[in-house]
Write a structure and sequence with these properties.
- InterPro entries: Amidase_dom, AS_sf, FAAH2.
- It holds the Pfam family Amidase.
- It comes from Nicrophorus vespilloides.
- This is Fatty-acid amide hydrolase 2-like.
- It is a single chain.
- The protein is globular and about 70 Å long.
- With 532 residues, the chain is of the alpha/beta class.
- Helix content is 41%, strand content 11%.
- It has an 11-stranded mixed beta sheet, with helices on both faces.
- The C terminus is likely disordered.
- Helix 10 packs antiparallel against helix 19, helix 12 crosses helix 18 and helix 14 packs antiparallel against helix 15.
- The chain has one domain: Amidase signature (AS) enzymes.
- The N and C termini lie far apart (62 Å).
- Strand 10 and strand 11 form a beta hairpin.
- The protein is built from 19 helices and 11 strands.
């Protein structure tokens, strides 16, 4: 245990408690996005693609329905960086014309189903993941006007499968924070209560998905950047096994020796079944290594669960409703699926120190100030930021400061905590094997805008999977008493992503999965500004 780190964490927890009345007052001013009015928006991607192939729906109508929903909610959630609505409508019309022309050709239709399983389905993409011709500023003032020269391979694989990209979504500057706010696009907001954060760094994706304005999206995950916004916005998100997803063209680059191990690009979706399809496409042609088509017998699954990693006054307390969700999910798998419930709890003491020591020892973390101007001085930029004169966002400067001071972690402790982490990882590998999962909270609680710093130590729940290389799926488990999403994460050993995804799909059946911010649904034709 590192005394300095724990004292700092305790101080932050005390400040969080003191500030709670202020944040409660602020939460009462939040708004929900309007209810979904078009039933097209409630169909999962796999079914939608099938309906488009069978000509039960036209791709152009689907695209227009999503564009209308985006225009309706974005004024509240501010998640869109740059759109391509007109191009998307033209591409959808081309899909419809092609499908109309081959309706009598059974072999051609089968080829479409096999090679383009997302043909005509709308897609949204996190700005940092590179959609050709679209902004790649990633929230940085110094990068305004820069465009992606190529599609990232993960994105390209989904486009090859027929998906139609609608837009790129918001991130923090350089993806450096767990709150999606920057000096270019501004602050993204939670569709369930706009006073709350969308999380980060894939926060724009999370907000659009949670609002029913996106169906499937591409995010990236270094320390929970897919799972945290998926949790905050009540949707599914998957961090894959280390090294299995292509990460080229991402900005900032995470292809260095250390970060490549921790970093992945992956799927975010409102429906669990779509995660499997997307992951298979994203990892193509190497998806066979994950055996995603191999059935999972949940009756033979062993389930471990922990309501928290460590009970300590120095750590953020896990919300009672999240603890209940962890227990309920484990009991459901035992009762309904016949899974074997294991009583053993893993020793994860000192996990915050392990995460901090391993991450702070990485030598290939992008440096914002050095990338933009090697003469910029960190402390001077902080002073300029106070007077709104800095070209760097407050959050990016905070992360840069933490990295500069090594997170308060003595560099000599890296090996000590590295050995402890390896021991914990080996134990989990042995106990979980190829037929076990571990259920943990995704994050201890929810937070409002500018509140993350007070709860930042909770990132240990997410960072554990990145540093170990384990796959993990965030699963929505309904809404809390405040009407905000709660979630859990299902973790397995490397290359057993299919176990996480199968559990997510089963828990969706039992606990409803994504719950719209407003539940009123009726058919209605929506007008789309400037598009015919």
């Amino acid at each position: 245990m590192e005394l300095l780190l724990r004292i700092l964490s305790l101080i932050l927890r005390i400040f969080s408690w003191i500030a709670s009345p202020i944040f409660w007052i602020m939460s009462t001013s939040g708004r929900k996005v309007p209810p979904i009015q078009n039933e097209i928006l409630l169909i999962n991607a796999r079914s939608l693609a099938e309906k488009i192939r069978r000509r039960e729906l036209k791709s152009v109508d689907v695209v227009k329905a999503y564009v209308a929903r985006i225009q309706e909610v974005n004024r509240l959630v501010n998640a869109v960086v740059e759109d391509r609505y007109c191009d998307a409508v033209l591409e959808a019309k081309a899909v419809d014309s092609y499908l109309d022309s081959i309706q009598s050709q059974k072999e051609e239709l089968q080829k479409v189903q096999r090679d383009q399983p997302l043909l005509g389905v709308p897609l949204t993409v996190k700005e940092s993941c590179s959609l050709k011709g679209m902004s790649i500023a990633t929230g940085s003032v110094s990068r305004i006007g820069l465009k992606a020269k190529e599609n990232g391979t993960a994105v390209a694989n989904l486009l090859k499968a027929g998906a139609i990209p609608l837009l790129i979504s918001n991130t923090p500057e350089y993806c450096f924070y767990w709150e999606s706010n920057n000096l270019v696009t501004g602050l993204s907001k939670n569709p369930y209560n706009t006073a709350y954060s969308t999380g980060g760094s894939s926060g724009g994706e999370g907000a659009l998905l949670g609002a029913g304005a996106s169906l499937i999206g591409v995010g990236s995950d270094l320390l929970g950047s897919i799972r945290l916004p998926s949790y905050f916005n009540g949707v599914f998100g998957h961090k894959a096994t280390e090294y299995v997803t292509p990460i080229d063209q991402h900005f900032p680059s995470c292809e260095g020796e250390t970060l490549r191990q921790f970093f992945s690009i992956g799927p975010m979706a409102r429906y669990a079944d779509d995660l499997t399809l997307m992951l298979k496409l994203i990892t193509s042609p190497h998806s066979s290594n994950l055996r995603l088509d191999e059935p999972v017998d949940l009756n033979k699954l062993r389930v471990y669960y922990m309501e928290e990693t460590e009970s300590s006054l120095t750590l953020p307390q896990v919300d009672k409703e999240i603890k209940n969700a962890v227990v309920k999910s484990a009991n459901y798998l035992q009762r309904i699926c016949g899974s074997q419930l294991e009583d053993e709890k893993f020793d994860m003491e000192n996990l915050p120190e392990m995460i901090c020591a391993l991450m702070m020892s990485a030598t290939d973390v992008p440096k914002i100030l050095k990338d933009n101007n090697k003469n910029d001085h960190l402390l001077l930029e902080f002073v300029k930021n106070i007077f709104n004169q800095s070209k760097y966002s407050t959050h990016a400067l905070l992360v840069s400061l933490v990295l500069h001071f090594n997170g308060g972690m003595p560099k000599g402790k890296k090996d000590i905590y590295g050995v402890a982490f390896d021991k914990m990882k080996r134990n989990l590998l042995e106990k979980l094997g190829d037929d076990g999962v571990l259920i943990l909270p995704t994050f201890p609680t929810l937070y409002q805008h500018n509140e993350f710093a007070l709860k930042s130590i909770g990132i240990m729940y997410l960072g554990f999977c990145n540093l170990s290389g384990f796959p993990a799926t965030q699963v929505p488990m309904g809404l809390n008493k405040k009407g905000l999403p709660i979630g859990i994460q299902v973790i397995a050993t490397p290359h057993n992503d299919r176990l996480c995804l199968a559990v997510a799909k089963e828990l969706e059946k039992g606990f409803s999965g994504w719950v719209p911010p407003q539940s009123s649904v009726k058919s209605q034709k929506l007008e789309i500004n400037g598009i015919s």
